[in-house]
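Technical note accompanying the year-one report. For the benefit of new consortium partners, we illustrate the data format agreed upon in the data management plan: each record pairs a sequence with a structure-token string. No post-processing was applied to the example shown here.
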Amino acid sequence: MQQIPVTILTGYLGSGKTTLLNFILTQYHGHKIAVIENEFGEIGVDQDIVIQADEEIFEMNNGCVCCSVRGDLVRILQGLLLRKNRFDRVIVETTGVADPAPVIQTFLAEPSLKASFRLDGVITLVDAAHISEQLGRSPEVKRQISFSDRVVLTKTDLLSDAQLAHVESLVQQLNPRVEMLRAQRGNVDLSKILEIHMHQESGIAKSLSFVGQSRPRFSLKAHKDEEVAEHEEGVSAVCVEVQTGLAHRMMLEFWINLFTSERGKDIYRLKGIVALQDERERFIIQGVHSMVDFSFGKPWEESEARKSVLVVIGKNLDQKLIEETFRQCFR
């Protein structure tokens, strides 16, 4: 049975999630979409704001989908399977104050969902006009950007090109080389945010392709007349590339499980493609906090260099320790 792709739409309060959702629901993209919306509180309002299109809205009103109602998310997705002929895509819109990690973990770990649904991508909306201020006061913004597979910058018409370039540098410090799109009133190229396969091998490989290249330097220096708030200490990305040698699977899994069990709360995203001893296929690693999923991808070509890559995004990461201990898994 073909898996139903799921897009997680996240972003801080006022970033334009509902506007983008309206844009998606009114475009002739050929998809039948089920939308799972979530309101913080007992009375839902988004269903009255979202344009009533052909798609059905599933609204949960008893709390945040990213924490207390995780069970409700599973129940609703299971209910969709009973009417799956009506839908070929699901969009989960989280509340603006939500950490998207539990939603991502649901699709990595819930056995009843993995056979029927696949996580396609995490789309984070960033209010370009207010991001500097938000980064200083709201840790949720940092986590939403760190977990993202695509970042959509909104309210871009309010800023100059130089100011937008500065905003992009702030985003890239939290999630290096994440692809960014500039939107005005929710208008964005849907092919860049739907069916992007960022949690399948092809998307993971693309997101890791920058490792080993020279990385641009960014400045936190404010533009004229712009005040930049203090940023959360220690949020960074560690990128490790192993050009030679093959990993011992048992050692690698032991190291990853030890690392994530000890530092899980500080690990926002972990992803990698590794060449293993005695295995022809690529070994795919995906993790959120202490939850990690392992799978095999396509075989390595005979003439292909078996390069292994690991990226960890999180807080207070020791780059030297991570790189040294990861390399010890290789022979």
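Partners are asked to follow this layout when depositing records. Residues 249-263 form the longest helix (15 residues).
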